[in-house]
């Protein structure tokens, strides 16, 4: 069964920095940003659950996005309760993505009302993962969490067209005290990771120049074992690995 852990707190804001119509009354818009790296050869399904109690999510409008290739793909929650929102998305092997949870400022009322203030905590799980050689049910992620925001130019309700847009960014502590998280997951027995890699000869040439290459690419147990072999042995083992992954040659 997939394991779930507490990850961090979060706070989403669209609020004036002081409760007064007189300057300075700039509005701050703040969101939650989570960078997730997958240092394994396994394709993963990631789940994030956000809890908010006082106030509930229906106190304002919010949006979530997942970005791996430079495109912010908007997510639809698989659970959408007043106090709980849950999102799922894919993270390919050896890849890194950015999750964004934000006040939905596309809705003009959100900025004009300047009344969004919600906070809570995030829980993380890996519901499923593709099989890999020397498989087990544990998968590792590297994670960093941040609050990022923008201060709008001076303005009572609507910010002027021209002015200073200042930024804020600060890291959030993770519940486990470190950025590496290892969780138990459910293995998808009907699939195996399919990686698109550079041509084999380039991989072999790189291995000959630096035998420890694979140990720097992934902490996966299988690649760590290969990295301890000499280049000729690595060639043989890597051929087996690439055949198992059904790599398409360039």
UniProtKB/TrEMBL annotation:
Origin species: Okeanomitos corallinicola TIOX110
Protein origin, superkingdom: Bacteria
Name recorded for this polypeptide: Uncharacterized protein
